[in-house]
């Protein structure tokens, strides 16, 4: 039983590390988009209206 718990802890840690890495990559991408002025700010209603226009 103890071996299984150790394996489970290892897998949980690896999953957490993967999630952190993915989040870091997404943050870097968003920062690049912000610097390139690809990010728009507005109200939720405006965002939803823009989505409807694209359909």
List unreliable stretches of 5+ residues.
Answer: none
Q: Count the beta strands.
A: 0
Q: How many individual helices?
A: 2
**Main beta sheet, described?**
none
Mean of residue pLDDT values = 93
Percent of residues in helices comes to over 70%
Instruction: Tell me the fraction of residues in β-strands, as a range.
Output: under 5%
Order of helices and strands: HH
- The separation of the N and C termini measures 54 Å
The quaternary state of the protein chains shown equals: single chain
Large-scale geometry: elongated
Helical/strand content category: mainly alpha
Our count of domains comes out at: 1
The rounded Rg comes to 20 Å
Would you give an account of this structure?
The chain is an all-alpha fold. The chain has one domain (2-54). It has helices at residues 2-35, 44-54. It is elongated, with a radius of gyration of 20 Å. The N and C termini lie far apart (54 Å). The mean pLDDT is 93.
Write the layout of secondary structure elements.
Layout: H1 2-35, H2 44-54
Summarize the structure.
With 55 residues, the protein is mainly alpha-helical. The protein has 2 helices and no strands.
Q: Could you list some keywords that capture this structure?
A:
55 residues, mainly alpha, elongated
């Amino acid at each position: 039983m103890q071996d299984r718990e150790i394996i489970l802890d290892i897998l949980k840690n690896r999953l957490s590390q993967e999630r952190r890495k993915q989040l870091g990559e997404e943050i870097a991408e968003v920062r690049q988009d912000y610097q390139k002025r690809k990010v728009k700010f507005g109200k939720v209603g405006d965002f939803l209206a823009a989505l409807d226009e694209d359909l």
